[in-house]
Amino acid sequence: MSVIPRKPKAPPATSPHDPRYYDARDLEAELRRAFQICHECRMCVNYCGSFPELFNRVDEAIESGRAEGAETIDDADIKAVSDACWQCKLCYIKCPYTPDEGSSEMLDFPRLMARERANRAARDGITFVDKILGEPQTIGATGGGVMAPISNFVLASSLVRKVQEKVTGISAEFPLPPMARETFSDWLAHHKPAESAGKNGEVVLFATCYGEFNVPNVVRAAVTVLEHNGVRVRYPGVGEDGRESLTCCGMPNLDGGDVKAATEKIRHNVELLLPHVRAGRSIVVPGPTCGYTMKKEWAEYLPTPEAKEVAAATIDLMEYLVKLGREKKLVREFPVKLGTVAYHAACHLRAQKIGFPGARVLGVVPDTDVRVVEQCSAVDGTWGMKAANYETGRRYAQKLVRGVSEMEPDMVVSDCTLAGLRVVKETGKHVLHPIEALAQAYGLLPAESAAPTTSAERA
């Protein structure tokens, strides 16, 4: 048994505003303590590559007689474990040693890995691939709109993608999302709300970068469904003279350890969203990764009362529709049946501990059989897009792929755009967001109108 104590002397530093956060010695001590606890437990061995790396390296030290536990781990061991973590958060929601469980160990493995990356980035700089993947809003603004046809033609070229992989480190095999010819905000600026919109209140839509620039069909469907249910949709930056628009939630920056860039984006978004929150509007989010980041991380990286206020007002889009159902405000007339629906339960949705609201809402559609596939896509943010991680991620995603394929569904849905890209690549099946499926059930969105999921489909 290792001599490393399980209980920390003080609560671990999870916020970059904690003076110990960038203390190398404090970080190393916390890594060894966490690794020791995980090594003794081993429950998470099948979740991702981090834990096999961790267990094998500690086992080797013990078997060679160099250690009794995790006390001899070095920088190479730490880097290997950290690089294999794709921040799915599943280990946290299953772990019995977390603050949420009231445990004295106060273990938070995902935040510890994020801290390690932040420290490495501060020491060694942000890698080129992380600089690129950390700015999806810039990529979308540059490659979308009038440039979309050219961008999609280039993205569909296997030769160009291979060259891109050599230069950027982004996998040539990962199916990148298409660029939209018309952005969501452009569409919304000319959209005439339904007459009934507003009778059941107003919400603010956080469209996400992918919703704004890549798959605006998802957020257009969200607007249509919400208005159909009497809810008016507001979107900061559209129809508000002199106001800037929302930007990325900051998660892609955090993936690369760029705390400063993430915090700047969080601060910008909080300033735009706060007046709406104080006007009594909820912030609805169609993407589980963005929703998780806003709820769980914004106040950690920007510890202000305003950030906490915005985080508390944030709700998943399908969770909001469940709320409408509880309030007897959800329209329950569905002229279109959906058949057998394979519903992928995204990791960052599960990490919010709100159940599977998309499955619950679709489950009220008559003659619709929703079957949940509770497996990880191994994309989770930007990790799965990197060439260095592609094959590992693909291997871990096979449980999801088999779960969808063996079901032989009439429709596949996932709240997560990136998980959907993985499913399309592996199965050839088109993937909808639950809000698109709901729009079809309402008869608001013809089945054949669903937009391509990948740039290759669109080209």
Automatic annotation (TrEMBL):
<dbReference type="GO" id="GO:0051539">
    <property type="term" value="F:4 iron, 4 sulfur cluster binding"/>
</dbReference>
<keyword id="KW-0411">Iron-sulfur</keyword>
<dbReference type="Pfam" id="PF02754">
    <property type="entry name" value="CCG"/>
</dbReference>
<keyword id="KW-0408">Iron</keyword>
<keyword id="KW-0479">Metal-binding</keyword>
<feature type="domain" description="Cysteine-rich">
    <location>
        <begin position="203"/>
        <end position="295"/>
    </location>
</feature>
<feature type="region of interest" description="Disordered">
    <location>
        <begin position="1"/>
        <end position="21"/>
    </location>
</feature>
<dbReference type="GO" id="GO:0016491">
    <property type="term" value="F:oxidoreductase activity"/>
</dbReference>
<dbReference type="InterPro" id="IPR017900">
    <property type="entry name" value="4Fe4S_Fe_S_CS"/>
</dbReference>
<dbReference type="GO" id="GO:0046872">
    <property type="term" value="F:metal ion binding"/>
</dbReference>
<dbReference type="InterPro" id="IPR004017">
    <property type="entry name" value="Cys_rich_dom"/>
</dbReference>
<protein>
    <recommendedName>
        <fullName>Cysteine-rich domain-containing protein</fullName>
    </recommendedName>
</protein>
<dbReference type="Pfam" id="PF13534">
    <property type="entry name" value="Fer4_17"/>
</dbReference>
<feature type="domain" description="Cysteine-rich">
    <location>
        <begin position="341"/>
        <end position="416"/>
    </location>
</feature>
<keyword id="KW-0677">Repeat</keyword>
<keyword id="KW-0004">4Fe-4S</keyword>
